[in-house]
Design a protein that fits this description.
Blueprint: E1 30-37, E2 66-73, E3 88-95, H1 116-124, E4 127-135, E5 142-144, E6 152-154, E7 159-163, E8 182-184, E9 189-194, E10 200-204, H2 217-223, H3 227-235, E11 290-293, E12 303-305, E13 313-318, E14 328-333, E15 336-338, E16 340-345, H4 359-367, E17 370-377, E18 382-387, H5 407-412, H6 414-421, E19 426-427, E20 429-434, E21 441-445, E22 464-466, E23 475-477, E24 482-488, E25 497-505, E26 530-535, H7 539-542, E27 549-553, E28 565-569, E29 578-584, E30 588-597, E31 605-610, E32 616-622, E33 628-634, E34 666-672
Parallel strand pairs: 7-12
Antiparallel strand pairs: 1-34, 2-3, 3-4, 4-5, 4-6, 7-8, 9-10, 10-11, 11-12, 13-14, 14-16, 15-19, 16-17, 17-18, 18-25, 20-21, 21-24, 22-23, 24-25, 26-27, 27-28, 28-31, 29-30, 32-33, 33-34
Helix pairs in contact: 2-3
The structure holds MU-OXO-diiron (FEO) and calcium ion (CA) (3 copies).
Length: about 675
Amino acid sequence: ETTVTLMPTMLGFTAVPKSLADVVAVPAGYSVSVLYRLGDPISGSVPAYANNGTDTNFAQRAGDHHDGMSYFGLSASGTAPDPTSSLRGLLAMNHENITESYLHPNGVTAGAVRLASEAIKEIEAHGVSVIEVARASATGAWSYTQGSTLNRRVTPNTPMTFSGPVRGNAMLRTRQSPDGTAGRGTINNCANGTMPWHTYLTCEENWAGYFRRDTGDVAARTAAGRAKENVSLARYGIGQGRAGNYAWSTAVPTDATSTVFARWNATIVPGMPNDGTGDFSHEPFTFGWVVEIDPFDPAAAPRKRTALGRMNHEGCEVGRTIAGVKPAFYMGDDAQNEYIYKFVSATPWSAADATATNRLAIGDKYLDAGTLYVAKFNADGSGQWLPLVFGQGPLTSANATYPFADQADVLVNARLAADALGATPMDRPEWTAVNPATGEMYCTLTNNASRSAGRVDAANPRAYTDPKTDGRAASTGNVNGHVIRLRETADTSEATTFAWDIYAFGAGSDLDPNNINLSQLDATNDFSSPDGMWFGLPSNVTGQATPLLWLQTDDGSYTDVTNCMMLAAIPGTVGDGGTRTVVNSLGGASSSAVTRIGKTPGTTLRRFLVGPKQCEITGIHSTPDGKSLFVNIQHPGEGGGAGNNTSSWPYTQTGAATGSARPRSATIVITKDDGGVVGI
Ligand code: FEO
Ligand code: CA
Ligand code: CA
Ligand code: CA
């Protein structure tokens, strides 16, 4: 490990006010440029984006809904990783979802059968981009390199392989891969992970929503001897009687042999083999994974890392890597009352692997064998990592709710295993981030409308009512979310116990300081629904004792007051605050909970950016010198549609009068006008 000189730490900018304007606002002394927008062509042969619904070939354009993102420095030769390069690099980013209407000339064409031409655009607008980006000079402008041989789109149709304990398992046998070793594509990719061996992890979040499952499928599976699949599908939110997002399965392919639309219907087809190889009844088991991509090898098939379990994977960030110690990978499962997980490799870290050229093989080494754990938070501020290991505790064939067959069954059904172990249901675990100076792990708990006064606990202690000023009904539950953090026992990633507290509670600064605005936020830092999160540069680059924590919001509750935002923080350490008794506004004294609260953020948490209308701020990374910060603006104007757009960002960013220009998700670059490190 590097020894660093501890320097005083302070935030070096003036807070940006809350705003409802259709523009990205940053502090005085900073500039924003727009780098990579929905529809921008990545190959040289694809025309510029018309942005009127007529564009095609999204497999060679930027997808929609930019999300998690990593910057990888690129060597002068243009082919290899160079972790010191701040002028040339690759950006890998997720395209989580679409704002469907804006992709078509007059919105979605009505009818029981989707037009194939519309469905293929929508499918290809999902997935991942890898693009080459470059800065003209140390103080110059950034651009992406259209036509770079490293540019790549990964879509829901891209061939992939399975690796780890579930590879080849009966549950992964499909029409496309009868031996259960190959997958097809990735979807609803939310947050990410940046591996020290220069690969990109992309995480499949709300994949379940895309599947159609017709009424009658429960009975059909039971009759076919597949009743366990009904338990599993229900636990992952795929009940019967659903059309699936965007109803892609209704579209008729122009190529009669193609299954790109039919695969989104998971209903058993009578007369087909009963092992998933004739219909698409196993297709849902091929999603819900963490996927590793080598951004430096566009020909390499991405690998679905099954050892990390199957869930609504939000993100997967690695903890500190220390030679001889098994590294940990921290993950949230984003749905109400789901859990926080960590995977500990079976293999201790070897520093030489950071410069190896067989990057996906290094991924095999650290991500295919190890132990998956789920978190239990105790009221006294302690916690346990409970192992998801077949044969231990309730994870056996004798389990009454779901009889587990083997370790692959435990991983495919990680949620059922975590239920059985007694993990703590959380207020929607979103991103994880690890403080490189301390090893402490932070996880955003974005909000939870189903958190009620009767079932608050120390780690999820708030249930309250937040009125609205824009005519909407009041929100209830944990309306504004919080950020929990933990410190592993003895500061080792291999620990099976930890200490925890809550770093900050989201809230409007006008709300009750005793029971809701527990972190005593003020007008410079009040926020709601924390989601994206990333620790900035290590101390030895910034000269600071503590790296900056960047916090981004994805909020519907606070949008009567402000658009979504990004804040910077100097976060302190676990246990730097105290304990408090919280009285829930929904339930009175009987529902009070003692909880552990971090030091009041005060001047160490400050609003740095506010986004345009109806956007989410998500995805963040920087160049290694800290002077260029990349941020994604997701779905501006998502509440509108073709002919009724509710934002014209990014056109509004330059002040141009653009009338009704359709909004576009986009990557922006933030630089400091004096050429310094962003944020300090
Ligand atoms: Fe894609 Fe949980 O946000
Ligand atoms: Ca998110
Ligand atoms: Ca969110
Ligand atoms: Ca979103």
